[in-house]
Amino acid sequence: MSALLDMRALDIRAIEVGYPVPGGGLRRVVDGLSLSLERGAIGCLLGASGCGKTTVLRAVAGFEPVRAGSIAIEGRQVASPGLSLPPERRSVGMMFQDYALFPHLDVADNVAFGLRGRPRAERARRVAAMLALVGLEGSARAYPHELSGGQQQRVALARALAPDPALLLLDEPFSNLDTDTRERLAGELRGLLKGSGATVLMVTHDQGEAFAMADHVGVMDAGRILQWDTPDNLYLRPAHRYVGGFIGRGVLVPAAALGLAGRGEVLLRPHALVPDPAGGIEGELLSVAFRGPGRIGCLRLAAGQVVEIELGDEVATAGQGVPGARLRLRLDPRGLVAFDD
Fold it and tell me: Does a structural domain hold residue 83?
């Protein structure tokens, strides 16, 4: 057991974070949350705005006290009720949403900022190594305003990694980038982080970013982690109704509406209902949208539920791929997830 604990770069146990409210009450923002990260792992807290994910990051960084539970970094307790080591004593690096680069400093000096107090030669070697890691060796004397958004992100990453923190925290690292740049840089950033050997905890509201970046993802709601798992398991085996509805495109439908036994619900992804003239399920096509390489239809089932389905070319050529058309469908049981009452 002790050997296992020694491998954990981050160990959060049942933390509670909250704020006093008028009248003497307490508003819990984080409620009994636990997770752990092994060295070199990338973890992500995923959830909608207001779920508490950023508050967890701030508590780990040392910006918010915990009212219950504990936080340990590399086996050293840094937070518990009555204990809160300041951020500079936690060996934590943080990359902020806006990158927080100093506009009056060039790239090299931005990266060197966290190395103050070290010998000049050591600082120079470390800066050179970090710029090489992020592929900006030729931009050492450039200023932030001369760089693209992606390049600024790399400088911020190099600066956060320069002091060799035990843990790196990323707060919505792609929020300032356009969609195309986000998708391209997510995989690239993961490669850089894995190459550095850093242990990372990030937060995002975007499941595409979470899945592209993280080894383990925790889906959060109302201050709690509902499921901490691999991206594959979150999609294929959601353990909670909220997780099933939040991950991917899916709708919870009563089993009876699909002719299935039981009183629970079934998570329907777009591929689960297949157009078939001999199928036993009927629905009305409400709309059709092209989402390359295929079409997605919005369908109202006979029982009233609205779901998405994938429409093949044969539906369009048969003249059924238009709003108002009535389709017969069969249920593809592969990958169905049922939630019992």
Answer: no
Q: Please give the distance of CA 193 from its chain centroid, rounded to a whole number.
A: 15
CB 135 within 8 A of CB 158: no
- Pairing assessment for the beta strands 200-204 and 167-171 based on DSSP bridges: parallel
Q: Which residue has the tokens 């059924």?
A: 320
| Residues 122-145 pLDDT 10s | 999 999 999 998 899 999 999 999
Amino acid 240 reads: H
DSSP letter string, 47-59: --TTSSHHHHHHH
CA–CA distance, 86 with 206 (Å, rounded to integer): 30
**Cα gap 63→60, rounded to integer Å:** 8
- Number of separate domains in the chain: 2
> pLDDT at position 4, please?
46
pTM of the model: 0.87
Main-chain dihedrals φ then ψ at residue 241, nearest 5 degrees:
-55, -45
**Buried-state track 227-251, b at ≥16 Cβ within 10 A, e below 16:** bbbebeebbeebbeebbbebbbebb
Range of the domain at 256: 249-339
Nearest of 11, 44, 14 to residue 28 by alpha carbon: 14
Of 134, 162, 190, the one marking the end of a domain is 162
Q: Which two tokens stand for residue 151?
A: 């390049």
Q: Which of 70, 55, 57 is nearest to 14 (CA)?
A: 70
| d(C-alpha 189, C-alpha 178), whole Å | 15
User: What is the pLDDT confidence band of residue 263, given thresholds at 50, 70 and 90?
Assistant: confident
| CB contact at 8 A, 206 and 131 | no
Write the pLDDT tens digit of every residue in 83-108.
999 999 999 998 887 888 999 999 99
d(CA 255, CA 340): 9
Residues 6+ apart with CB under 8 A from 23: none
